[in-house]
Write a structure and sequence with these properties.
Layout (H helix, E strand, L loop, with lengths): L7 E3 L3 E3 L17 E4 L13 E5 L7 E11 L2 E8 L4 E8 L10 E6 L5 E4 L3 H9 L4 H8 L12 E5 L2 E7 L2 E4 L6 H12 L14
Length: 208
């Protein structure tokens, strides 16, 4: 990323291959993307509070969209995705997973002008095997001291529209597999998801 402004991180890079056949391509606009990630006030704001701005240029003179927190607390957060004119593009609801409720982290994206997207983190089978081998965690933690790696939690997340996959996150990449009328919303979902790394995940949240 050239001339990256201080206090920002690179916008999401998406790969896409809609439909059957065809070449892979990146559905990016013809400009560089920079994300401002505002740090939350830990005393007054919930851990799921986020405020992200996607800028078109490194001088931050034109922003493409803003993701702001509408409400957050008790494991549930609602975010508004606003376009460059302040128009509402979507509301995104994230419910945090819980080992006590055996619940996976879930996402619900309600588009202002289209069908909604839904997603859950990890596949049920992957979570089953992850917990099945949990008694070995103590040994695995010890191996970290000699250069070993702790097994990642199941992270694959698939956003679906009416049962059909639109985009998935796997191996630290976002891949779009179906056309979507407004690419801005896909970028908003990706950057909001990336701003929510989990414990033992393979990436860490970029900091300002």
């Amino acid at each position: 990323m050239r001339r990256q402004p201080p206090g920002t991180w690179q916008g999401p890079v998406l790969l896409a291959k809609p439909g059957a056949g065809g070449d892979w391509y990146a559905p990016v606009p013809d400009y560089e993307l920079f994300v401002d990630d505002v740090a939350r006030d830990k005393k007054t704001q919930d851990k799921d509070w986020r405020h992200l701005t996607l800028w078109r240029d490194n001088r931050r003179t034109a922003w493409e969209m803003v993701v702001e927190t509408e409400s957050a607390g008790s494991g549930r957060a609602v975010y508004r995705v606003l376009g460059s004119q302040g128009e509402l593009l979507a509301r995104v609801t994230r419910r945090r997973g819980s080992i006590f409720r055996f619940a996976r982290t879930s996402w619900r994206v309600e588009s202002a002008n289209g069908p909604e997207l839904r997603a859950r983190k990890g596949h049920v089978v992957a979570w089953f095997f992850w917990w099945l081998f949990s008694p070995l965690w103590a040994v695995m933690l010890a191996l970290i001291l000699v250069g070993g790696e702790f097994p990642r939690m199941p992270l694959t997340t698939r956003w679906r529209r009416e049962g059909h996959e639109v985009m998935h996150f796997e191996d630290d990449e976002y891949v779009v597999v179906s056309d979507w009328p407004d690419a801005r919303l896909i970028y908003a979902v990706a950057m909001l998801h990336w701003a929510h790394p989990t414990v033992l995940s393979s990436w860490s949240r970029p900091t300002s």
